[in-house]
Structures are given as structure tokens and as C-alpha cells.
Write a structure and sequence with these properties.
about 375 residues, Alpha-Beta Plaits, three-stranded mixed β-sheet
């Protein structure tokens, strides 16, 4: 709840400051007849709307889970970032059309020093907002605020270009207003596409940050009973809700009680430290018979011939069923996984004819 309040406060600061800039820039643009300044004012207006969308998004995202949405509504923040991108794109497109019109039918803009001072003050305000949104957005884990920070940084470039164009017109009488407006619109559209890309990636789901994955795996493997950590998968249901699963390798002589206490201990520690709800699966490793170690080494030697096999884990020999079982992690670029698995299975069954071979195909979900 406190996070929601903080995001709203930051967004309100953005709305107020952007509306002030809209008023001043619209006045300067109308008086001077400058399309680039009016474009800048329109861009600031879209920023105010974006901050309003951020507020609505974070309120919706804060709703408690229900029967239809058991994982909560956290992804509304990603949706709001996508809406912001659409708003920015629409602004950039309209600016593009108007700028082209100004290039075809140029009009001389008239500036004075107070007007130029207003544009310069606007640049300083936008520098403040860019840093403010970025710092607060990263701290609050808000994609919408981070997106607004990126947009504000582009606005600094845009307003600087507008000021340069105004200064050229003021001192030389040469008007490049339409061209400045064209550059402004291009940057606005580029910003919108980038923000939309980030939002879509978060909605679809992307690979977990490798540093975060490494931290989780290190924390899981702290207990000396854990011999290996594999198959870490994390799903983000909003900035503050992460649910995942992982396999740990343990000796096959552990009791159910020991495994229960171990997995409960690990999941509780991970949740307290990282806020991740983690389900833990078990891989057993054979604790007897040197023959199994020989088979395991043979598999390791075999997979060296396949550079797209990144890892072998979950190795276990079931002596009752005479079954050799293990997982292979393939690179996403490998297209002939089934053929490779078939080849390895055939090779092992020829070498160890009394055993059947069962290989599970894995994907490289985290580093």
C-alpha cells in the first residue's frame, strides 16, 4: 500500500510540473508562431496524461488477488506502460505531420529573450523530472515511472533542439522550425517504440536477470545437503510478485522428513530475503555403486560432442527398473534436439544393454 502511495506522489509531481510547462510553452508557441515549441508543449501534455495513466495503473495493480486472478493484478503496471507508449506514439505522429506541413509551407517565427528564457527554464525542469522519475521508479520497481523518466530525458534533447532552433531564428532570421519539429517528432516516436518494447517484454515474460538468478541459486545451495541447483524458473506477476520453481539435487538416502524440513527451510529463507515464492523439486543422486559413476562420466564425455548441450543434470540410475534417467539442457538455438537425444540414447543403450535410457529435454531458462 505504501508503494502505491509513493508512486502516486511521484506521478502527481510529474503532472503538475508538466502542466506548468504546457501553459508556458503553449503561450510562447502561439505568440511566436513556432511549430517546434507548440510541438514541445503538446509533448509535455502527453507526459501529464502518461503520469495520470501511471496512477490508474498502479491503483489497479494494487488490487488483491481474486478467484479469476489468483496471481494478483500486478501486470496492470506493464499494461499502463504500454498505454503510455501508445499516447507518446500518437503525439509523435501528429507532430510529424504538422512539422512536414511547416517544411512545405514555412512560416517565420518571432521570438524575444523572455520567450527563450522560458524554453531554457523548461529544459532545467525536464532534467529534474528525468532524474527524479528514474531514481524513484527504480527504487519503487515501477516500469511506468522508469518509462516516464526515459521520456523526460528525450524531452531534454527535444527542448534543447527547440531552443537551438529558436536562437538561430532570433539571431539570424533563418527559420528551421519545421526541421526541428521533424527531429522532435522522430525522437518522440523512437521513445514510444522503446517503451512499448519493454512493456510487451514484461507482459510476455523475459529471461530473468542473470545476477538475480545467480543470487537465488547461491542462496538455495547454502545448505550442505544440497548437492546441486538446477531448472530455476521465475515468473513475474508485477514488480513485487515473483513465483518460481527450482530443482535441488540430494542424496537418495534422505528420508521424507529430512527432505520436507530442507525444502521448507529453503523456501522460507528465499521468500524472506528476496520476496520470491519458490516451489522446490527434488533430484536424487545415487549414493552407492561405482558403476553408476562410470555411466555418469560416460554421459559427460558423450555430450562434449554436442556444443549446444549446455548442461546435464538430474542423473539417476533406478536399479529396480534398470533405468538410466537424466536431463539435458539445450541452447535455444538448437533445432534438432530430438535427433541428438535419440543419438545419445542409442549410444548409451548399446554400451549398457541391460539398461533403458530416459532423457528429459530442458530449456535454458536462467543462467
Amino acid at each position: 500500500m505504501q508503494r502505491i502511495k509513493d508512486v502516486i506522489k511521484v506521478s502527481l509531481v510529474g503532472i503538475i510540473l508538466n502542466l506548468v510547462l504546457v501553459g508556458f510553452k503553449a503561450f510562447v508557441g502561439l505568440v511566436s508562431g513556432s511549430i517546434s515549441i507548440l510541438s514541445d508543449a503538446a509533448n509535455n501534455l502527453s507526459d501529464s496524461i502518461s503520469s495520470l495513466v501511471t496512477i490508474i495503473g498502479v491503483i489497479l495493480a494494487g488490487k488483491k488477488p481474486d478467484k479469476e486472478h489468483p496471481y494478483g493484478h500486478g501486470k496492470f503496471e506493464y499494461v499502463s506502460a504500454l498505454i503510455i507508449a501508445v499516447i507518446i506514439f500518437g503525439t509523435g505522429t501528429s507532430l510529424l505531420v504538422e512539422s512536414v506541413r511547416k517544411i512545405i509551407i514555412p512560416e517565420v517565427a518571432n521570438f524575444d529573450l523572455p520567450m527563450l528564457a522560458i524554453i531554457f527554464a523548461g529544459i532545467l525542469v525536464k532534467i529534474f523530472l528525468a532524474k527524479y522519475f528514474k531514481i524513484r521508479g527504480e527504487k519503487l520497481k515501477s516500469d511506468s515511472l522508469v518509462a516516464s523518466g526515459k521520456d523526460a530525458l528525450f524531452d531534454v534533447i527535444i527542448s534543447t533542439g527547440t531552443l537551438i532552433g529558436a536562437l538561430i531564428t532570433y539571431f539570424s532570421g533563418i527559420t528551421i522550425d519545421g526541421w526541428i519539429g521533424l527531429a522532435v517528432s522522430a525522437l518522440v516516436i523512437k521513445s514510444a517504440v522503446e517503451i512499448a518494447g519493454d512493456a510487451i517484454n514484461n507482459i510476455v515474460g523475459t529471461r530473468t536477470d542473470s545476477n538475480f538468478s545467480a543470487e537465488i541459486k547461491k542462496a538455495v545451495s547454502k545448505d550442505k545437503t544440497v548437492l546441486g541447483v538446477y531448472d530455476l524458473t521465475l515468473h513475474h506477476y508485477g514488480p513485487e510478485k515473483v513465483i518460481g520453481s527450482v530443482h535441488i539435487e540430494v542424496n537418495d538416502d534422505l528420508t521424507a522428513r529430512e527432505i520436507h524440513l530442507l525444502t521448507r527451510k529453503i523456501s522460507e529463507e528465499i521468500y524472506k530475503k528476496y520476496g520470491v515464492i519458490l516451489t522446490i523439486g527434488i533430484y536424487a543422486t545415487n549414493t552407492e555403486k561405482t558403476e553408476y559413476a562410470e555411466i555418469k562420466q560416460e554421459i559427460k564425455n558423450l555430450i562434449k560432442n554436442y556444443p549446444t548441450i549446455l548442461q546435464m543434470h538430474g542423473f539417476y540410475v533406478d536399479s529396480d527398473k534398470m533405468l538410466i534417467n537424466f536431463d539435458l539442457v539445450f541452447d535455444f538455438n538448437e533445432k534438432e534436439n530430438s535427433k541428438i537425444i535419440s543419438s545419445i540414447s542409442k549410444n548409451l543403450e548399446e554400451k549398457y544393454p541391460k539398461y533403458r535410457v530416459q532423457i528429459v529435454e530442458d530449456k535454458d531458462f536462467s543462467d
